[in-house]
Design brief:
Layout lengths: L8 E2 L8 E11 L5 E11 L9 E4 L5 E6 L2 E2 L5 E3 L3 E4 L8 E9 L9 E5 L2 E5 L19 E10 L5 E4 L2 E9 L2 E12 L6 E4 L2 E8 L5 E8 L8 H18 L7 E7 L6 E2 L4 E5 L12 H16 L8 E2 L5 H19 L2 H20 L11 E2 L8 H34 L3 E2 L1 H12 L8 H4 L5 E9 L4 E9 L14 E8 L5 E2 L4 E2 L3 E2 L2 E4 L3 E7 L6 E4 L8 E4 L3 H10 L3 H25 L7 H11 L6 H8 L4 H8 L5 H18 L1 H10 L10 H20 L4 H9 L3 H14 L4 H14 L3 H12 L6 H9 L9 H14 L1 H4 L5 H16 L1 H8 L10 H16 L5 H11 L1
Bound molecules: arginine (ARG) and zinc ion.
The site of arginine has 11 residues, from strand 20 and helix 2.
Length: 881
Amino acid sequence: MRTDTGQIIHLADYRPTDFVLERVDLTFDLHPTETKVEARLIFHRREGADPKAPLVLDGDELSLSGLLLDQVDVPASQFEATAESLTVRDLPESTPFELTITTVINPEANTQLMGLYRSGGIYCTQCEAEGFRRITYFPDRPDVLAPYTVNIIADKAANPLLLSNGNFLGGAGYGEGKHFAAWFDPHPKPSYLFALVAGDLGLVEDTFVTMSGREVALKIYVEHGKEPRAAYAMDALKRSMKWDEERFGREYDLDIFMIVAVSDFNMGAMENKGLNVFNDKYVLADPEIATDADYANIEAIIAHEYFHNWTGNRITCRDWFQLCIKEGLTVYRDHEFSADQRSRPVKRIAEVRHLKSEQFPEDSGPLAHPVRPTKYREINNFYTTTVYEKGSEVTRMIATLLGRDLFKKGMDLYFDRHDGQAVTIEDFIKCFEDASGRDLTQFSLWYHQAGTPLVTASGTYDAAAKSFTLSLEQMVPATPGQATKEPMHIPLRTALFAADGALLTPTSVTGAELTDDVLHLTARTQTAVFHDIPSRPVLSLNRSFSTPINLQLSQSAKDLALIARYETDHFARWQALIDLGLPNLLQAARDARQGIPVTCDAAFVDALLAAANDESLEPAFRAQALALPSEADIARELGGNNDPDAIHTGRQAILALIAEAGKNIFAALYDNMQTPGPFSPDAASAGRRALRNAALTYLSQSDNAPARAKAAFDAANNMTDLSAALTILAHRFPETAEAKAAIEGFRDRFAGNALVIDKWFAIQAAIPGAATLERIQGLMETPLFKRTNPNRMRALVGTFAFANPTGFGRADGAGYRFLAEEILDIDQRNPQLAARILTSMRSWRLLEPVRADHARSALMQIERAGNLSTDVRDIVDRILK
Ligand code: ARG
Ligand code: ZN
């Protein structure tokens, strides 16, 4: 296992390599425990580089078994090899030279799942960010691009399939039961996009004709027997290819595009050139095993990885500090795709929920960092929701500032100007400045300043002057390493409504720029005056969540109810309902803590039920309205000294009050929202199921027996309904015979399907209350539990730590101690997974003192352990600091 080197990498230290890599020729002789890798690398010294500089290549747990320079053995005096690097001296000053490096690696022993590993009989690679250096010595950094030829030799019976990036060159027998295949990728790429897959898999094939009329072979490889479950992924892939042509003018650039689904994978998926590797969770679906959420995730992730072909692969990052240039931009692209394929406002609501529950806590805690960080200790820990989701929001704001046409012009310029390059955020921003003539200097602070800005707003109406004055103030909180901040450029979509719900349009605005509905807040404080407003307006601010901020604006329940009813922007309607509900949930948590009975404003309950019952609204929207902020959301809003039990009790009490008031509405919805006919995963049907299951959740809140939920469980004919019913039974009635029967029945029915069993683990891991820890420890003893499988660990340990505040945060601290022990154990095998799950502790300082003490002790237990990976060391140090 890697031990911590403690080294911190700084953006300011970036410099290009001394040597330019011209081409790469790799030969793999695959073997489960002794794979021989021969890398032939052609370099020349960069013009202007020190003529004496040695060539220094990266390695990780490597040992060198051969080194040739232009086909001749290199004498020991000329090089030095360690597990982490290979240094070669006295290389030619100006002529190209060929280095042939041989290493032998052990895929079977690679439990980190970085580099080349073997899982379930399949050879597979993951090289981003720094996995390629676990295969061979290499300049393993994203600004070293070259065309690759890859030859794969392997036992033919066990590995009928030999895949790598690019186009297939040919294959043949190789003697002794072996065969070989050769691939060539003409597009220069960095090593993190290299991939190799070998083994025996089933194939689903299709074709796509690109906008210039080229036919591309599409191939999805899955475990034998699972081919029918790849149909939806294939469909999503074709829709993605079409959409990227239509929306961004991007055409695919190889003869073949392959996706391989594997079951042991550290992340969601990986965009290797022409050969994406996916966690099978994001490929396999059919109504029996996949929920509507799974279908939506598959569609989004297939699109995301495909879109990387241009934003990431054709144009990549100069260094890992620029990660958001591919991730933030590509998330923005996949969000737009999903919005076009489904309901735009519902998609936006889901995005904002996710942003607030994942990115906002990161940005306000010890792990906060800028979208474009300036230093890191372990790059794997920077594949964060800040880089991805806030990075996407920043891209969205550029589109908002420029408008659709100029944004398109800027993107076109980016693709033209930087195709084939490894670039920086500055290069990216410059394209939009050049395309629009707009100065984005202040705007670019969004990339450099961490922390969620707080905007405080208040409005006053002057009836005599017929003007509405909006006072705005912005504050960006201090974050680790950034004590003071500059004012940001904050684009606030804004609208004013009359008491009858009509839109009020000012004749002019002074004190701030207003373009269409975008109000530009650029100073620390600013006062905008809207002229010729005939009556007191109701303000709708940050429509569509045009900017990722915390907004402090006090509005009467009456005004919020008006927005919830009349806003033309449906996101803003949803936000108004949340703003109506949140104070009730916060007060409920406080009351529950004091033992005071919980109450709820009628205005909120009425508005919520009106939305739920409004047939002019799409069911998916109504379901989103009924999903109250989570316990974690409430904890974040409370802001400190938090007692998870009180938050839970208060929230449950509010749910019960709504359930009681809406009994008839929920009963009618449950009856009427059936989806007739055979199952279809389309967005409209999914919306009906979501609304129906939301109704069932409320009905079960007022039921004091599990009969209704159990009937729903027994009647379910798809995984969405089945898992919703199981969740209600397990979470609301865990000790009943019905819940126990459902839990066992579900297990027995799906014991052979790992992805469904992950759901079974996750649902149980999220059962509220102190007893869940013992349940989890019991589950870990069952044969279905697989310690080495990342999906399984995330389902059980990850869900418990991230999504069960009362179970994980039980008052005696046993949940935190359990996590500490698990982290230390996981870290021995898979540091990346351990570090990721450990981030669940990032908000520990918001806990009340007794729990906070327990959490700190558990973190210190990790910190004191010897032999920590850099990944875990980095996270635990930052969380404790
Ligand atoms: N580039 C991949 C994606 O977002 C994710 C890779 C994650 N890598 C990591 N080291 N965590 O599509
Ligand atoms: Zn990505």
